Amino acid sequence: MARMDASEIERQSNARIVAVQALYLMELTGLKADKVIADFLAGDMPVESGTQIAGGYDHDFFSSIVHSVVEKRKTIDALISANLDAKWSLDRLEKTLRALLRAAVAEILGGDIDGPLLINDYLNVAHGFFSGKEPGLPPWAPIHMPIC
What we know:
Elements: H1 6-29, H2 33-41, H3 59-71, H4 73-82, H5 95-110, H6 115-129
């Protein structure tokens, strides 16, 4: 894993925020990944006002997260579902939370990550989208998957 400076870390964190927004939009509208990615990169998609993207975001990293989720969707959904409480189903999760978990698991499956940093970053992303108890790690969160 290559060492990154603070600016690169911020741009990757921002890319995660935008990737969650893109995945949410794809689920909501049925648009394909390439169309949504192109629209975001062209600046045609609004960035959630509650999130901070002032430092810009890593376009390639953003694209790779979205494509990874699309390519590995069955595996990702199976991993998330296997770690949900028996009373829950993946479809029962709020769309933004589902998009966030899919993005995080896609990165875990991609390897070459700093597990604790990744978890912290996605918890911060969650705080940008939720003001209630959702950002905390609920008992059904997929925390048993090896990430380090």
